[in-house]
Amino acid sequence: MDSNLRLMRRLAGIEDAPQQFREEAGAQDSFHLMNASKLWRKVIKEGDNLLESVQNVVSSLEKAESEEFAVRRNQALVDVRNSVNAVQMKSKEVYADFALGRNEFYEAAKIWDMSTRRSGKGAKKSVDISDVDDSKLVAQAAKGSQNLIGATGKMLEAGAKASNLMSVCAKAGCPVESRKEVLDAALDFRDLVSEAMFARVNGVMRRSVLVLDRFAAQVESRSLYEAKEWVAPWERDAEIGDVEAI
Question: pTM for this one?
Answer without folding.
Answer: 0.86
